[in-house]
Amino acid sequence: MDAEKILDAKGLSCPMPVVKAKKAIDDLQPGDILEVHVTDKGARNDMPAWAQASGHKLVKQIEEGNVLKFWIKRG
Amino acid sequence: MALKNMTPQELAKMVINGDKLFILDVRNTDEFDDWKIEGKGIDIINVPYFHLLDGVDGILGDLPKETPILVVCAKGGSSEFVGEQIVEKGFNQVFSLEGGMKAWSEYLEPVKIADLPNGGSLYQFIRLGKGCLSYMVASNGEAAVVDAARMIDVYENFAKKNNLTIKATIDTHLHADHISGGRALALATGATYYLPPKDATEVTYQYEPLEEGHDIVVGHSTMNVHPIYSPGHTIGSTSLIIDDKYLLTGDILFVESIGRPDLAGKAEDWVSDLRQTLYNKYKKLSEDLIVLPAHFSHIHEMGDDGAVKAKLGALYEVNEGLQVEDEATFRRMVTKNLPPQPHAYREIRQVNMGKLTPDMDEQREMEIGPNRCAVHE
């Protein structure tokens, strides 16, 4: 999947992954995709919930080992 | 004013005292709906932190000016993030729960239930965040711990402080809602670990059978822990009578409900055992016994001192699970429309059998949420 931007939030704990994702996506254009990498397990539920609450669309979510990866389309 | 931390211990005191406290829980709504902090003096609202990334202006009107405000999240990071913003808006008494719900779930508050003969004592350890109750019987420098939680350092430190040597750890049954600390505590202290043999058919470790007819002596020679076979929640469930006055019921009988028979996948098979235990075997015991269960579901089951207890005779008057004359109605009550099962209960049973050995983070993850061992929520 082609992401406009990749945000590495590995090693950061809650709330920073979502705080940084918000900042990053605010710089994108509607329809652009942000890819986020997180190791804090709290993001598993929080990232999709934040995306939905903010009018963005979670396109894909996977787990590779300890890393949670999200693709979020700016709404 | 700066944001202050509140420890789980400080929160526990406030919950037990019924102090007024306003809680802003900033976890996501699914987690909040599943499980939250309760208390007589507590008002609580849920606003996920990711709604507050641009500031807290939108919720200021919902916050009290006079009552202390405690911000709570999963681990303690987001509650600081939100709490600091509230402080900046001029609120005076704002706290962040140190370690979040994770730490709250692991905190145990010891409450003395009674003095036992010859200088002994009986303590209840209340796991407020999860509704689990464990016990320590102390007599003549020795102690037995019943239904220990996995935070075994709490019992070790308590024993040390009170000059007690832990000689026995006892599980009344194979637990499905939390990871037992019984075996680990026995290994750490050199104590003997007791488990009902009928619940232990698949365990991978050595244990001493907990069986009716084989009393366990703690400290003073007259201080007996007397097991009573009382199946129904599990096939091995065994209650303990202490000092002829206290009945530790495990997950068979609670203050406001009764144990559910379905957590090992055998509800239909175990219903008649549960009925036999509650309507026959317990009925023959003294009405004056003080019931001390392994769980509570609601904060109002707690007395003014924090202890969760009730007279057996009184429970036969008021406990919903003990009022069902008709056997078929009883069968329906304990097998149909039960609350959701505890989080990860299958894996937790495997851990307690010794078949799975998850790391600390995985253990915490498995134990998230309320205990849900009763037939009524």
Structural write-up:
The complex is a heterodimer of chains A (75) and B (377). With 75 residues, chain A is α+β, with helices and mostly antiparallel strands. Chain A has one domain (5-73): 2-Layer Sandwich (Translation Initiation Factor IF3). Helix content of chain A is 29%, strand content 35%. Chain A has helices at 16-26, 43-53; strands at 5-9, 33-38, 57-64, 67-73. Chain B is α/β, with parallel strands linked by helices. Chain B folds into two domains: 4-104, Rhodanese-like domain (Oxidized Rhodanese, domain 1, 3-Layer(aba) Sandwich), CATH 3.40.250.10; 108-366, Metallo-beta-lactamase, Chain A (4-Layer Sandwich), CATH 3.60.15.10. In chain B, β6 and β7 (120-127) form a beta hairpin. Chain B is globular. The mean pLDDT of chain B is 95.
Q: Rg of chain B from C-alpha positions?
A: 21 Å
Structural class of chain A: alpha+beta
- Helix/strand/pairing category of chain B: alpha/beta
The low-pLDDT segments of chain B are: none
Specify the number of helices of chain A. 2
The Cα radius of gyration of chain A reads 11 Å
Instruction: Please report the total strand number of chain A as a whole number.
Output: 4
The main sheet of chain B orders its strands as 6-7-8-9-10-11-12
Question: What value does the average pLDDT of chain B take?
Answer: 95
Largest interface: A-B, 15 and 16 residues
Major sheet characteristics of chain A:
4 strands, mixed
Low-confidence stretches of chain A: none
**Approximately what portion of the residues of chain B adopt beta-strand conformation?**
15-25%
User: How many discrete structural domains of chain A?
Assistant: 1
- Gross morphology of chain B is globular
- Supply the CATH class of chain A: Alpha Beta
Helix and strand run of chain B: EHEHEEHEHEEEEHEHEEEEEEHEEHHHH
CATH architecture of chain A: 2-Layer Sandwich
Number of strands of chain B: 18
CATH topology of chain A: Translation Initiation Factor IF3
